[in-house]
Design brief:
By secondary structure, this protein is an alpha+beta fold. Helix content is 31%, strand content 17%. It is built from 14 helices and 18 strands. About 1% of the residues have low confidence.
């Protein structure tokens, strides 16, 4: 029997980017089949106000084993998960690179103060006042930041720990010109150019839409390199697609409608999904998903390896409804991830004691902007040829082959013509003019 719960939505914006627990934000932990709806004025419960549908033991062990084998290696170290990665902590942990120290807000402010131009108005700020301010006012937990380049620092300061304070105290008798020069040297040589988030085990598979640096539809790296392995998960994903259709027929139909606008080669097998996010032993901080189809729905599944190790903890929490779901291996959670804040409680035990792979399956709404597979692959080829052509008028070291307005240039139109590809945008424009007249 399916329990049906209707709850009022509670403002929980303060949780975004933070780790939360069931003890703080859930007065119910769901362990059996359940549907949760957001309370409405007229009391209706339908697919407009559905928050989640949770079903136990949907998948067989055989289906899970094949999906695990096909997808587990897709969850790799990533620093591209935004606020879902959570507060950055005291150090940036990176597999194989040790831990690296964040440049703190206090250190950044001190460097900015010391490197200020000579003609800056004196407002009474001092090194001491900056340090006192940060001592009194606890720094907000940030989710991204820059790190100290330890290898560069230790060339001058072999005893790394405490080096910044030693450097700072050494500036006391320096002239302003010398302080500016010293501070600028530290900024230019000891701080990473890259802005990092905390590392997590997460990756994507399937297909992805265009964005400025990669202006063509594309196959995700994992399944491009491992097509046969990726295909092992297809029986699992087909069953998931069918359960989605059965449990949320309207939402599924919305997603089917949009998926049918896309070349089938940009869809995962016989499903309405374009993309998967694969996570392993990752406790997400509170966030809302972005990029998936608003009228569709996210599909979340929990899988463990063939040895059946499983996991403890990591309940899926929806703080706006004060409810959590104890997602276990074989379960299915259809959930409004883009509309609602969600995160996980902590895993209990070490990484070695847990084996929690979760799949988030969805359709990226901007996939409908893609044209045919052949057209998108030609865009990819065009970018690569420009990038590798040292005789191109725009070529420079590390150029990615992309330039402003490149798709309106005669160079691109000539390239399409040379490869016998018709411009789909010209066809659309002509069709629009025909209908007008």
């Amino acid at each position: 029997m399916v329990e049906v719960i209707v709850r009022k939505k509670i403002d929980s914006e303060e949780t975004l980017g933070t780790f939360i627990t069931c003890a703080e934000y859930a007065d119910r932990i769901i362990t059996e089949d359940c549907d949760l709806y957001m309370e409405t004025v007229d009391g209706t419960t339908n697919e407009e106000n559905i928050i989640f549908k949770y079903r136990k033991n949907v998948f067989t062990q055989e289906e899970m084993d094949a999906a695990y084998e096909g997808l587990r290696d897709g969850a790799t170290e990533s620093q591209n998960r935004g606020i879902a990665a959570g507060p950055r902590g005291n150090q940036l942990g990176q597999e194989g690179r040790g831990n690296r120290d964040w440049v703190t807000a206090e250190q950044l402010e001190l460097l900015s103060f010391l490197s200020r131009p000579l003609n800056t108005f004196d407002d009474g700020t001092t090194v001491e006042s900056i340090r006192e301010s940060h001592r009194i006012n606890k720094e907000k937990d940030e989710t991204r930041g820059q790190v100290w380049l330890r290898s560069a620092v230790t060339k001058k300061y072999p005893e790394y720990h405490g080096w910044f304070d030693k450097w700072l105290s050494g500036l006391h008798n320096f002239s302003r010109e010398q302080q500016i020069e010293e501070a600028q040297y530290v900024i230019d040589n000891y701080i990473s150019d890259t802005n990092y988030a905390q590392s997590v085990k997460s990756g994507i598979a399937g297909f992805f839409d265009r964005y400025p640096r990669i202006p063509h539809g594309r196959v995700c790296s994992y399944n491009e390199k491992n097509p046969e392995k990726f295909a092992l998960a297809f029986p699992y994903l087909r069953k998931l697609n069918n359960k989605f259709k059965e449990l949320l027929p309207v939402r599924w139909a919305n997603q089917r409608r949009e998926a049918d606008k896309v070349d089938p080669k940009f869809l995962i097998d016989e499903t309405v999904f374009s993309t998967l996010t694969i996570n392993h032993n990752w406790r997400t901080a509170c966030h809302r998903d972005a990029g998936d189809l608003h009228e569709g729905f996210s599909n979340i599944c929990g899988i463990t390896g063939p040895d059946g190790k499983g996991w403890k903890g990591a309940e899926f929490i929806l703080p706006e409804y004060r409810i959590a779901v104890d997602l276990r291996p074989g379960d299915l959670l259809l959930v409004n991830n883009h509309g609602g804040i969600h995160g996980n409680d902590a895993l209990i035990g070490t990484d070695d004691e847990n084996d929690r792979m979760t799949l988030v399956c969805y359709f990226r709404e901007k996939m409908v902007e893609l044209k045919s597979w052949e057209y998108e692959m030609l865009r990819k080829q065009y970018v690569e040829e420009r990038r590798n052509n040292k005789n191109h008028k725009l070529w420079r070291p590390l150029w990615n082959g992309v330039s402003p307005n490149m798709w309106e240039d005669q160079e691109w139109f000539d390239y399409m013509k040379g490869h016998n590809i018709e411009d789909p945008y010209a066809k659309e424009k002509n069709a629009s003019l025909d209908s007008f007249f």
